[in-house]
């Protein structure tokens, strides 16, 4: 097969060869969004503008002048990225109806490449959560809940009951984006990752979830949770696609002073990745309490796969892993308290009707606009930032953060190329189960395997590995060296090829089927 | 009664003279239509990020060097949190932990008496200079019970200059601030016009007995001019002394200066101590400055600030200018202060000197005692003077050549001031003010006078 551009996109190829038009592609995705509405993956569907963008793309293809591999490709964007003219809500009452006047840099870059923006996806309010269940528009449902694979494994008794009540969560907080990609309503989606918010839902939804190195991709326009840890995340159905999207997004942005100045060279991954010369590290601390035996077995199997391919696989130690959740709790809430201070109802967003005084207006606005989770974090964060507490909590946590980051430096410094770990402790919980514990408890439990990479600013990726006994996706995580995305994704691609993760058997997707989709065993635009 | 030692420190906010704001590209301009100079970042739209303005950094470095500070090659930005209508983000970006410049000094001079005849030099230590954002403006409309917010000023760059409590009275405080103002204006780092809010001063005042620890201090705000600064400080010192002598105590509070009543009053807004919950600004990496030695080889010059480069290009500071004036023109130090104190006066003086034969030592008297007093009387600036340096030089030449007397010259000046376009010579001729040089003519006039006043002459001769 011929290489086109710097990545092989079968859909891109199809678009180029005229087998399908950008408009058709867009319409099919919009139709599928409608028929999968019950997933609640989208908050806003920008049908009109998407079709217009598709039309423009089509014109370019007709002229033989597509902008690149992303031209005409339908994408979705998590609703905490600013999109000019399209509502940006962060799934919060505070920003319901808020129409931003500017595009986030990453959104602009995608649009400049000709991508078609289908809409904004659902999330936990202000990206706080690990289930995508605590947003003001309701929870997102994992498409795999409705897959044949899951239904087959379900208890027949409960199956005959209201099918609806057994649905499982997507994980979070970028659950909408993960569900959108997983259910084929778009070819790629943007998420965000602060403690695992892209990788966690990617694992539960059976898609590739890439957390790039901090400083590689601009955060300008991403409504922040924790400025020192947030990164835009990339969700796709295969590793090659993630590399392609990364290529169009990475690079210095003068509007974001935390992006590195070095010029970024987009790369293509080798067709036949070779892992035989690599040193793979297995951090023993990631055998965390509560890790399901299934995932443990899968992790072990993966290690064997690498060994058999000639790679060296060794156990390593990241001794401060156990402190990362507590450390994260302090630093995250502190930054949240600070970042949310701007939501006072004066300049934009929700403003309470209470007008007795400015102070009372502030208080009412913030009480009405924020959910419990957000308010809880603000209160905690303010507590840690008080003068008398700053040294004991914030400074202490920063020191612990340094220790966690140093753990990784040491391990990578000793020759390890890539770390292999589980992404989640188990497959996706049914919603009914998940909500038995509060957001804080769940976040603390679910972030344990993903959080440390955010502390250290390292790139990490979830690759779907297998289906669990319940017929739900389980993924494994690779953590790489800073700014070594090429190596990281090469390893990820190799692994992806080995495991041959199955395609989701979803009625709506099958009905919607098109020649284009038929080509894709690994299901993507690649 | 034991003597009291008043202690005065100052926190001065100088607006940086730059085209755009400290962290965003919106324009800096005085008196623009409300909310017309507000970028997305200034309005704190979610997702916007600060980008440091290079010119503001250079202004702060210049100012630090001029004030003999150590420039910190690495300084940090912090967030200072509080809720207020004119602070859209709910926090101000400032430099609380490690500011850009520290440990400097400022020398200023005072007259010992009122006649400007003896000056004494004092020094105040500069604790630090930090870069920070200005806030917007809120206007309270009590009739409609609402507050109007104008964000034009929000995000404009400020240099906060902290002066240690080395001053002892209002006069010293005002003199120190005046000197700082002149320095900033000379550097161009701030226009420092108090009336336009480009220079704002808060005073920290306390009193104690000699040998005892410093007393509780109050902060005095809302001071709009140098004159009010001196008044506010002196009033506060007096108030504290009286309070303590009456057995009362001083509260660590913030007070506002009421210029109408000439006193300080407690400020309602600032009751209770605020915890600003300082936190590092995560969106701005440490500010790293270089000197010629540490400048990396392959660096983009747009991205670095070289302290040495700035140092080499510093203009003559007021103290240097004054010394040069004294040396060059043989005038007294007090004169040089007066020259620099009035915008444009030095240039005026130097132009006159160039165009006249009269010695600078004599010219200075005309500049300071005549021109300046006329300007003050009519509230005019040097620029607005109806008498140009050319005209004055002309006049002084007539005086120097002894064609008119000193008294006559003053009359001519008064005429010139009317600005009717006449030259000094024309006025002299018109008013017949010429000095008579001819001996015979003089004898004739004297004789005529004597002749007219015979009786008085006889009385005089007889004793």
UniProtKB/TrEMBL annotation, chain A:
Gene3D superfamilies: Amidase signature (AS) domain. Keywords: ATP-binding, Ligase, Mitochondrion, Nucleotide-binding, Protein biosynthesis, Transferase. GO terms for cellular component: glutamyl-tRNA(Gln) amidotransferase complex; mitochondrion. Residues 28-148, 169-489 form the Amidase domain. InterPro entries: Amidase, Amidase_dom, AS_sf, GatA. GO terms for biological process: glutaminyl-tRNAGln biosynthesis via transamidation; mitochondrial translation. One of its GO terms (molecular function) is transferase activity. HAMAP family: GatA. PANTHER family: GLUTAMYL-TRNA(GLN) AMIDOTRANSFERASE SUBUNIT A, MITOCHONDRIAL (PTHR11895:SF7), TRANSAMIDASE (PTHR11895). This is GATA amidotransferase. It comes from Turnix velox (Little buttonquail). The gene is Qrsl1.
TrEMBL record, chain B:
It catalyses: L-glutamyl-tRNA(Gln) + L-glutamine + ATP + H2O = L-glutaminyl-tRNA(Gln) + L-glutamate + ADP + phosphate + H(+). GO terms for biological process: glutaminyl-tRNAGln biosynthesis via transamidation; mitochondrial translation. SMART domains: GatB_Yqey (SM00845). Keywords: ATP-binding, Ligase, Nucleotide-binding, Protein biosynthesis, Transferase. One of its GO terms (molecular function) is glutaminyl-tRNA synthase (glutamine-hydrolyzing) activity. The keyword Nucleotide-binding applies. Residues 347-462 form the Asn/Gln amidotransferase domain. One of its GO terms (cellular component) is mitochondrion. The keyword Protein biosynthesis applies. Signal peptide: none annotated. Belongs to the GatB/GatE family. GatB subfamily. This is GATB amidotransferase. The lineage of its organism: Eukaryota, Metazoa, Chordata, Craniata, Vertebrata.
């Amino acid at each position: 097969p011929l290489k086109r551009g710097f990545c092989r996109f079968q859909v891109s190829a199809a678009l180029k060869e005229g087998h399908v038009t950008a408009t058709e592609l867009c319409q099919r995705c919009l139709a599928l969004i409608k028929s999968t509405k019950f997933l609640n993956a989208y908050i806003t569907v920008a049908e009109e503008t998407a079709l217009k963008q598709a039309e423009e793309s089509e014109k370019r293809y007709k002229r033989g002048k597509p902008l690149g591999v992303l031209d005409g490709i339908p994408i979705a964007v998590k609703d905490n990225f600013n999109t000019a003219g399209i509502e940006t809500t962060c799934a919060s009452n505070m920003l319901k109806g808020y129409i931003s006047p500017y595009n986030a840099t990453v959104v602009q870059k995608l649009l400049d490449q000709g991508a078609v923006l289908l809409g904004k996806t659902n999330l936990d309010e202000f990206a706080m959560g690990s289930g995508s269940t605590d947003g003001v528009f309701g929870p997102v449902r994992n498409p795999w809940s409705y897959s044949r694979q899951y239904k087959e494994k379900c208890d027949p008794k409960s199956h005959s009951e209201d099918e609806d009540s057994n649905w499982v969560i997507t994980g979070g907080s970028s659950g909408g984006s993960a569900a959108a990609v997983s259910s084929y309503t778009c070819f790629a989606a943007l998420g965000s990752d602060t403690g695992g918010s892209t990788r966690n839902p990617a694992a539960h939804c059976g898609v590739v979830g890439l957390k790039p190195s901090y400083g590689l991709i601009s955060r300008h326009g991403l409504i922040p949770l924790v400025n020192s840890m947030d990164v835009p995340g990339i969700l796709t159905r295969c590793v090659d696609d993630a590399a392609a999207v990364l290529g169009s997004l990475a690079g210095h942005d003068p509007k974001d002073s935390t992006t590195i100045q070095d010029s970024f060279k987009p790369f293509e991954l080798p067709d036949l990745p070779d892992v035989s010369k690599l040193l793979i590290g297995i951090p023993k601390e990631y055998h965390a309490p509560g890790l399901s035996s299934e995932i443990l077995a899968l992790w072990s199997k993966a290690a064997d796969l690498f060994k058999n391919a000639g790679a060296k696989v060794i156990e390593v130690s990241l001794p401060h892993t156990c402190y990362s959740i507590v450390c994260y709790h302090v630093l995250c809430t502190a930054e949240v308290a600070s970042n949310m201070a701007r939501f006072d109802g004066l300049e934009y967003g929700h403003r309470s009707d209470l007008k007795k005084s400015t102070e009372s207006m502030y208080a009412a606005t913030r009480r009405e606009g924020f959910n419990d989770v957000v308010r809880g974090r603000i209160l905690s964060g303010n507590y840690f930032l008080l003068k008398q507490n700053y040294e004991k909590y914030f400074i202490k946590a920063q020191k612990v953060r340094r220790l966690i980051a140093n753990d990784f430096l040491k391990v990578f410094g000793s020759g390890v190329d890539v770390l292999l770990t589980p992404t989640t402790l188990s497959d996706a919980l049914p919603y009914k189960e998940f909500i038995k514990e509060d957001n804080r408890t769940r976040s603390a439990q679910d972030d344990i395997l993903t959080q440390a990479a955010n502390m250290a600013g390292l790139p990490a990726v979830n690759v779907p590995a297998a289906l669990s006994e319940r017929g739900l996706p389980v993924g494994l995580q690779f953590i790489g060296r800073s700014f070594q995305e090429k190596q990281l994704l090469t390893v990820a691609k190799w692994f992806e090829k080995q495991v041959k993760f199955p395609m989701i058997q979803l009625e709506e997707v099958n009905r919607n089927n098109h020649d284009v989709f038929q080509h894709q065993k690994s299901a993507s635009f690649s | 009664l034991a003597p009291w030692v008043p202690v005065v420190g100052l926190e001065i906010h100088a607006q940086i003279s730059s085209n755009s704001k400290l962290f965003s590209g919106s324009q800096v301009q005085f008196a623009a239509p409300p909310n017309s100079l507000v970028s997305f970042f200034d309005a704190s739209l979610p997702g916007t990020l600060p980008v440091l303005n290079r010119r503001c950094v250079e202004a702060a470095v210049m100012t630090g060097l001029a004030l003999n500070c150590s420039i910190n090659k690495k300084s940090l930005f912090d967030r200072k949190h509080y809720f207020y209508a004119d602070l859209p983000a709910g926090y101000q970006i400032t430099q609380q932990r490690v500011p850009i410049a520290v440990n400097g000094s400022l020398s200023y001079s005072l007259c010992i008496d009122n006649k400007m005849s003896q000056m004494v030099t004092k020094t105040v230590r500069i604790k630090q200079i930090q870069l920070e954002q200005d806030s917007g403006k809120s206007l309270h409309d009590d009739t409609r019970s609402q507050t109007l917010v104008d964000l034009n000023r929000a995000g404009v760059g400020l240099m906060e200059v902290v002066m240690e409590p080395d001053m002892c009275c209002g006069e010293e405080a005002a003199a120190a601030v005046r000197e700082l103002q002149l320095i900033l204006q000379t550097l161009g780092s701030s226009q420092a016009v108090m009336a336009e809010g480009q220079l704002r001063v808060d005073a920290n005042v306390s009193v104690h007995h000699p040998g005892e620890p410093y007393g509780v201090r109050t902060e005095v705000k809302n001071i709009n001019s140098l004159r009010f600064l001196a008044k506010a400080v002196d009033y506060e010192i007096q108030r504290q002394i009286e309070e303590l002598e009456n057995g009362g105590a001083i509260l660590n509070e913030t007070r506002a200066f009421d210029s109408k009543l000439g006193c300080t009053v407690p400020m309602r807004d600032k009751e209770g101590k605020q915890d600003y919950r300082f936190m590092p600004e995560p969106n701005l990496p440490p500010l790293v400055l270089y000197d010629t030695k540490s400048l990396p080889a392959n660096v983009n010059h747009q991205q670095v600030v070289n302290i040495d480069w700035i140092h080499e290009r510093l203009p003559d500071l007021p103290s240097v200018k004054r010394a040069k004036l004294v040396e060059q023109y043989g005038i007294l130090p007090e004169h040089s202060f007066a020259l620099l104190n009035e915008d444009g006066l030095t240039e005026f003086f130097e132009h006159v000197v160039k165009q006249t034969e009269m010695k600078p030592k004599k010219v200075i008297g005309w500049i300071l005692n005549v021109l300046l007093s006329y300007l003050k009387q009519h509230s005019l600036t040097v620029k607005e003077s109806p008498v140009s340096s050319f005209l004055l030089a002309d006049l002084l030449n007539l005086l120097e050549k002894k064609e008119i007397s000193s008294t006559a010259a003053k009359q001519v000046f008064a005429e010139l001031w009317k600005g009717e376009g006449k030259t000094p010579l024309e006025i002299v001729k018109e008013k017949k003010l010429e000095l008579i040089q001819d001996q015979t003519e003089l004898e004739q006039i004297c004789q005529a006078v004597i002749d007219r006043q015979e009786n008085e002459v006889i009385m005089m001769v007889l004793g």
